[in-house]
């Protein structure tokens, strides 16, 4: 609905099925009402999270549902035919390990288990947070953008928020969530090929890189290489299946054939390094 005078407020039900449009007497009144409603919604967020986690049983050690850390409505940018863009409402929820997107607030345990999209926090980076036009301007949209490494390449999303408080809250939740996921998960490994030999490449949050000979034995194969993160001189990938690592050792540049897209491993590496640098006080 056109709102040339900025007098309208839209209220959407949690299930996304109902919308109420309120028209105020003027722009300042609409802004005042928006601020009042939004402030109360923000104040209720901790209670809402506690209620949802209790309903899902996420506070129980035996629960199969992840613990929610943050939730809220956003507007996601979608591409239309002809290159046009528009925003659609979505619900984003952050758990200890994942980003979940829903069409509306889930109303059952089953619907909580079937999000529209799931992205690992460990393989996701926040790449922009601020004005959509690159510099603050009156009336400019406030957005943040994410990039996730997947087996198909890099998947990008742009989300619009309503206020600077929303922007800072989501920015903080995503960055801190990725770092917390790094400390929680600690280790990621993948079977691959190095110099025509089946090996396993392991990235550990504390210990760095380990390359072992792949074996059927559960005890694992012999260690071929082990390097801390500080020894890494160069990392790159071909965007298809190969990961290149150079630690300055006598073996030279190592080429790992991952048999799938390398971006998830690359993004996990970046998350581990970012979390370690932040913990050391070198990043804020």
Automatic annotation (TrEMBL):
Superkingdom, natural source: Eukaryota
UniProt keyword Cytoplasm, yes or no: yes
Classification via InterPro entries: PH-like_dom_sf (IPR011993), PH_domain (IPR001849), PHsplit_syntrophin (IPR041428), Syntrophin (IPR015482), Syntrophin_4th (IPR055108)
UniProt entry keywords in alphabetical sequence: Cytoplasm, Membrane, Repeat
SMART domains with a match to the protein in the record: PH
Membrane topology qualifier: Peripheral membrane protein
Localization annotation: Cytoplasm; Membrane
GO cellular component: cytoplasm; membrane
Record-linked Pfam families: PH, PH_17, Syntrophin_4th
Domain PH stretches: 1-42, 67-179
Protein name in the entry: PH domain-containing protein
Source organism (scientific name): Pagothenia borchgrevinki
């Amino acid at each position: 609905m056109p709102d040339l005078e900025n007098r309208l407020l839209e209220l959407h039900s949690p299930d996304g099925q109902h919308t109420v449009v309120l028209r105020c007497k003027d722009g300042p009144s609409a802004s005042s009402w928006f601020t009042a409603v939004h402030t109360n919604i923000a104040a209720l967020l901790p209670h809402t999270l506690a209620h949802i986690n209790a309903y899902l049983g996420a506070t129980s050690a035996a629960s199969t549902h992840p613990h929610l850390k943050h939730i809220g409505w956003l507007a996601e940018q979608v591409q239309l035919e002809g290159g046009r863009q528009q925003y659609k409402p979505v619900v984003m929820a952050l758990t200890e390990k994942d980003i979940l997107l829903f069409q509306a607030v889930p109303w059952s345990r089953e619907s909580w288990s079937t999000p529209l999209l799931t992205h690992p926090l460990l393989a996701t980076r926040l790449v922009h947070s601020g004005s959509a036009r690159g510099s603050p301007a009156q009336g400019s949209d406030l957005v943040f953008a994410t990039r996730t490494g997947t087996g198909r390449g890099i998947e990008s999303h742009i989300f619009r928020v309503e206020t600077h408080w929303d922007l800072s809250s989501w920015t903080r939740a995503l960055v801190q969530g990725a770092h917390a996921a790094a400390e929680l998960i600690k280790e990621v490994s993948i079977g691959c090929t190095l110099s025509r030999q089946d090996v396993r490449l392991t990235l550990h949050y504390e210990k760095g890189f380990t390359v072992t000979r792949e074996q059927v034995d559960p005890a694992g194969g012999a260690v071929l290489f082990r390097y801390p993160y500080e020894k890494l001189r160069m990392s790159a990938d071909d965007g298809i299946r190969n990961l290149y690592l150079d630690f300055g050792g006598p073996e030279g540049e190592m080429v790992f054939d991952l048999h799938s897209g390398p971006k998830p491993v690359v993004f996990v590496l970046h998350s581990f390094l970012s979390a370690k640098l932040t913990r050391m006080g070198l990043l804020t």
